[in-house]
Design brief:
792 residues; alpha/beta; MutS, DNA mismatch repair protein, Chain A, domain 3; Rossmann fold; 4 domains; 6-stranded mixed sheet; 5-stranded antiparallel sheet; 23 strands
Length: 792
C-alpha cells in the first residue's frame, strides 16, 4: 500500500470493512481495494453501494455464508480428475449461496438498480444441488440415498453382520466356550469378527488365529463357523467402496458439466458480498453518500473520523478548494488539528475506494490523482535522520509530485528547527505548493503563518477551539478564525509554577502579545456571535413550528368547513329531488281532478291542492336551507323592499344571490345562489350591486309562470354556462318538459372542453324521469347536443 495511504490509516478502515465479509475471497478483495482517481468509476461504485444499502433497508440484508473458492476443484473436474467428498461439499456450499441470493432478489419487487446485472447472472442449479445434498453426509461419508445399489449393499452388510454377531453371541454364552474365553466379548481384528481365547485353550476353539495380545496370554481366533460370514462382509464392503467411487465420479462429472456456470456464480457471489459488506459497514459508522466531482472542492459537513470511538468523536465542518486553496489550522496541542487533517484525507480516500463516509448529507468530495501526506514523526536512527530532516525529506518528495490534481496534508510544517527560519521556510513551501495548483491543508503554531493566511487571498485560517474556562480543548474546528496555542494556560492546568509562567509571559514580544490579544478578542466575539446565532436559530425553529401548527389548524378548519358545506349541499339536493317528486304527484292529482264532473267540486279540490302544495313546498325549502341563522352583529336595514331580480349579499354564507320571488307577508323571499334555491328572511340579506352580465350566458329556455297553460320549447341552449349553472337550468327545463308531456327534448351544450357536457350527462343519469339520452348525430349537432327521451 502507498506510504501516504498508510499514514492516513486506510488499511485499518479496509480491515474494518473486511470484518463484514463472509468468505475468504471477498475478505481479500476488501483488503486489496485501492483508491481510484476516475471520477465516473467512483460515482458508479458509490451508487452501487448506496443501492445495496437501500435494498438492505427495504428487504433486509441478503443471506451470505462462508463459501470457498471452488475454481480449482472445477478445473480439476473438467480435466477428468476426481473430486473428494470435501471438494464436493464446497461446491455444494457455492450452489446453496447462488440459490439463496437468487431467491432473495426475487422478493425485491419493482426495483431497478446497478446491481441487477449481477443478480441476473446468478443461475441456480437445483438438480445438482439436490443431488449433492442428498448424496453426501460429511467429508467422509456418503448417504444411503446416493444410489439404490449403495443402499442395497449396506443393507446386506448390516444383515450379514447381525447374523454373524448372533452366532458369536450364542458361542460366548455357551458354558463350554466361556471357560476358554479371556473376556465374554466379541472384538475385531483386520476387519473380521474374532473371540479373545486364553492361550491354553487355543486348540479347543477351531478357527483362524488373527492376532495375540502383547503378553501372549490371549489369542484372537476367528471361529470356523463364522469364516464364511466374515468373507461375505469383506466382499460386500469391497462392493460398497466400488459403488462409492462410481457415485463420486458421477457427481464429479456433473460438476464438470456445470463448471462454467458455477464458477461465474461464485464470482458474482463474492462481488455482491463485497457491495453488501460496504453497505453494512456504512450502516455501522452511520455513513452517507457524498456528492462526487473532480473539481478539487471538498466540503465536509459534520465529518467524523471512522477510527475514533463514536461516543467520543467530535464532528467537524471542513471546506477547501472553492473560495480558497489553502487552509492553515492553528490551535492548542491535542486540540484536534492533526485529526482534522487525517479526517479529511481518510474520507477522501474512502470515497475513492467506493465507500460511503461518516458525514452529514450534502457533503462534497473531489477525487485526486495524488494525496500527499506528511503527518507524524518519521525520524530514523539507522538513516541518521532527525525529526526535522525526516519532515524535510517528505516535503521535498511532496513538492516533486504536487500538481493541480493533488491534495496535500502537512502537519506542523517547518517545526523542529529555529522558529524564525522554520516559519519562513513554511511560508515558502506553501507558496510553492499553491503555485502548482494543489489543494493544501497545514497545521502550525507559528504566528507568521496565521498572519500569512490573513494577508493571502486564497488562504484561510482555521482553529481548533479551546475552552479557556475548563482549560480543555473542545475539538471543534472553527473556519475563518486563527487560534491561540494557549501554551501558558495548558502549562498552568498541568501544574507549572505560576512564577515560571509569569516569567515566560514577560519574555514574549509586545507584538506577539498584541496579536494574541487580538485573536483572543476575535475568539470571544465569535463565541458570543455563535451563542446569538444559536438563540436566533432556536427562535426561528420555534416560529416555523408555530407557523406550521397554525397552517395545519387552518387547513383542518377549511377541510371541516368544506365537508359541512358538501354535506349540506348533498342533503339539499336530496330534499329538492323529493320535492320534485311530490310536485309530480300533485300534478298527477290535478290531472285526475280535471276529470271530475262537478265544476264547483273541481274548483274546491284545485284550491285545496294548491294550498297543500304551497305549504309542502315551503316546509321543504325550509328543511333544505343549509344556512344556520346567525344573530346580526349590526343594525343594517334594507333601503327599500326587495323585489324579484334584486342582487343581494348573504352574510351568514358569505355568498351572493338573486331574489327570485317577491317578499311575502312574513318577510320571506326565495334567493337563488349557485345551484341552491333558499327561502330566507329579508333581515338576513343585504342589497348589493349587481355585477355586469356576461354576454351569451342567457339560456333560450324561459319557464312560464302559468303552469295550466304552459308551452315549453323542445330545446335548451346552455352554451357558455358554468357547469353548476348549466345543471340548474337543465333541472328546471326537464321538470317543465315533463309537466307539459314532452317525450323528446334537445339540450345544446356545445363541444368545448367537454366539462359542461359531462356535467349534463352526470345529472341526466340521476334523474328518474329520464328514460334515455344520447349525443346527436350528423345533422342534429353531433357531440355539441344531447337528445333526451323522457318517461310518460
Amino acid at each position: 500500500m502507498d506510504k501516504y495511504y498508510k499514514t492516513l490509516e486506510l488499511q485499518k478502515v479496509l480491515e474494518m470493512l473486511a470484518a463484514h465479509t463472509s468468505n475468504a475471497a471477498t475478505r481479500q478483495m476488501a483488503l486489496d481495494i485501492r483508491p481510484s482517481s476516475d471520477c465516473e468509476e467512483v460515482k458508479r461504485e458509490i451508487e452501487k453501494v448506496s443501492q445495496a444499502f437501500e435494498l438492505s433497508v427495504r428487504f433486509g440484508t441478503p443471506p451470505f455464508s462462508d463459501f470457498h473458492d471452488v475454481n480449482g476443484h472445477l478445473r480439476r473436474a473438467k480435466s477428468g480428475g476426481r473430486l473428494s467428498l470435501k471438494d464436493l461439499l464446497e461446491v455444494l456450499a457455492v450452489l446453496k449461496q447462488i440459490k439463496s441470493l437468487h431467491d432473495w432478489y426475487k422478493h425485491c419487487e419493482d426495483t431497478e438498480t446497478e446491481l441487477d446485472y449481477l443478480f441476473n447472472n446468478l443461475i441456480p442449479n437445483d438438480a445438482l444441488l439436490m443431488k449433492l445434498e442428498n448424496s453426501i453426509l460429511s467429508e467422509e461419508e456418503l448417504s444411503d440415498g446416493a444410489s439404490s445399489e449403495l443402499a442395497s449393499i449396506r443393507r446386506k452388510i448390516r444383515q450379514t453382520g447381525a447374523k454373524l454377531r448372533s452366532t458369536l453371541d450364542k458361542m460366548v454364552k455357551s458354558s463350554s466356550m466361556q471357560k476358554c474365553l479371556q473376556d465374554a466379548v466379541v472384538t475385531m481384528r483386520d476387519g473380521r469378527y474374532v473371540l479373545p481365547v486364553k492361550s491354553e485353550y487355543k486348540g479347543a476353539v477351531p478357527g483362524l488365529v488373527h492376532d495375540t495380545s502383547a503378553t501372549g496370554q490371549t489369542y484372537f481366533i476367528e471361529p470356523m463357523s463364522i469364516v464364511d460370514c466374515n468373507n461375505d462382509i469383506r466382499i460386500l464392503e469391497s462392493q460398497e467402496q466400488e459403488e462409492i467411487d462410481r457415485i463420486i465420479r458421477a457427481l464429479t462429472a456433473e460438476c464438470a458439466l456445470s463448471a462454467d456456470s458455477i464458477s461465474e456464480g461464485w464470482r458474482v457471489c463474492t462481488i455482491l458480498n463485497l457491495y453488501f459488506a460496504k453497505s453494512n459497514f456504512a450502516a455501522k459508522i452511520k455513513a452517507t453518500a457524498p456528492v462526487i466531482s473532480d473539481d478539487g472542492v471538498i466540503e465536509l459537513k459534520k465529518a467524523r473520523h471512522p477510527l475514533i470511538d463514536p461516543e467520543k468523536v467530535v464532528p467537524v465542518d471542513i471546506s477547501i478548494g472553492e473560495e480558497y486553496n489553502a487552509l492553515i489550522i492553528t490551535g492548542p496541542n491535542t486540540g484536534g488539528k492533526t485529526v482534522s487533517l487525517k479526517t479529511t484525507g481518510l474520507l477522501v480516500l474512502m470515497t475513492m475506494c467506493g465507500l460511503l463516509i461518516p458525514c452529514a448529507d450534502g457533503s462534497r468530495i473531489s477525487v485526486f490523482d495524488n494525496i500527499l501526506v506528511d503527518i507524524g514523526d518519521n525520524q530514523s536512527i539507522e538513516m541518521n535522520l532527525s525529526t526535522f530532516s525526516s519532515h524535510i525529506n517528505q516535503v521535498i518528495d511532496i513538492i516533486s509530485k504536487a500538481d493541480e490534481r493533488s491534495l496535500i496534508l502537512l502537519d506542523e510544517l517547518g517545526s523542529g528547527t529555529d522558529p524564525v527560519e522554520g516559519a519562513a521556510l513554511a511560508v515558502s513551501v506553501i507558496e510553492r505548493l499553491k503555485s502548482s495548483g494543489a489543494k493544501l491543508m497545514v497545521t502550525t503554531h507559528y504566528q507568521e503563518l496565521k498572519i500569512y493566511a490573513i494577508e493571502s487571498e486564497d488562504t484561510l485560517n482555521a482553529s481548533c477551539e479551546f475552552n479557556i474556562e475548563t482549560l480543555k480543548p473542545t475539538y471543534k474546528l472553527i473556519m475563518g478564525s486563527p487560534g491561540k496555542s494557549n501554551a501558558f494556560a495548558i502549562c498552568q492546568s498541568l501544574g507549572m509554577p505560576s512564577d515560571v509562567i509569569d516569567e515566560a509571559k514577560s519574555l514574549v514580544s509586545t507584538e506577539n502579545m498584541r496579536f494574541e490579544k487580538v485573536i483572543e478578542n476575535l475568539e470571544a466575539a465569535r463565541a458570543e456571535l455563535e451563542k446569538q446565532n444559536a438563540e436566533l436559530e432556536r427562535l426561528r425553529r420555534e416560529a416555523e413550528e408555530n407557523a406550521e401548527k397554525l397552517r395545519s389548524e387552518l387547513k383542518e378548519l377549511e377541510d371541516r368547513k368544506e365537508a359541512e358545506l358538501d354535506k349540506a349541499r348533498s342533503i339539499s339536493m336530496n330534499i329538492i329531488e323529493n320535492t320534485k317528486a311530490k310536485s309530480n304527484e300533485l300534478l298527477d292529482e290535478l290531472q285526475s281532478i280535471k276529470k271530475q264532473k262537478s265544476k264547483a267540486k273541481f274548483e274546491n279540490m284545485v284550491s285545496d291542492a294548491e294550498r297543500i302544495s304551497k305549504k309542502s313546498l315551503n316546509n321543504m325549502y325550509d328543511n333544505a336551507n343549509p344556512v344556520v341563522k346567525k344573530k346580526q352583529t349590526d343594525d343594517y336595514k334594507l333601503p327599500r323592499a326587495l323585489k324579484t331580480g334584486d342582487y343581494v349579499f348573504i352574510p351568514s354564507m358569505n355568498k351572493n344571490g338573486t331574489v327570485v320571488t317577491n317578499q311575502d307577508a312574513k318577510g320571506f323571499v326565495f334567493v337563488q345562489s349557485g345551484m341552491m334555491k333558499m327561502k330566507m328572511n329579508i333581515t338576513d340579506l343585504r342589497l348589493a350591486e349587481k355585477p355586469k352580465e356576461q354576454k351569451n350566458n342567457k339560456a333560450k329556455f324561459t319557464p312560464k309562470k302559468n303552469t295550466a297553460s304552459r308551452q315549453v320549447q323542445q330545446e335548451l341552449d346552455i352554451r357558455g354556462f358554468a357547469a353548476d349553472e348549466g345543471v340548474m337550468e337543465l333541472d328546471m327545463f326537464i321538470n317543465h318538459a315533463v309537466m307539459t308531456g314532452l317525450s323528446l327534448v334537445t339540450v345544446i351544450h356545445g363541444k368545448g372542453t367537454g366539462i359542461l357536457r359531462n356535467a349534463v350527462h352526470a345529472r341526466l343519469k340521476k334523474m328518474p324521469v329520464v328514460k334515455s339520452f344520447r349525443l346527436g348525430v350528423y345533422g342534429e349537432g353531433e357531440d355539441g347536443v344531447t337528445i333526451v327521451e323522457l318517461k310518460h
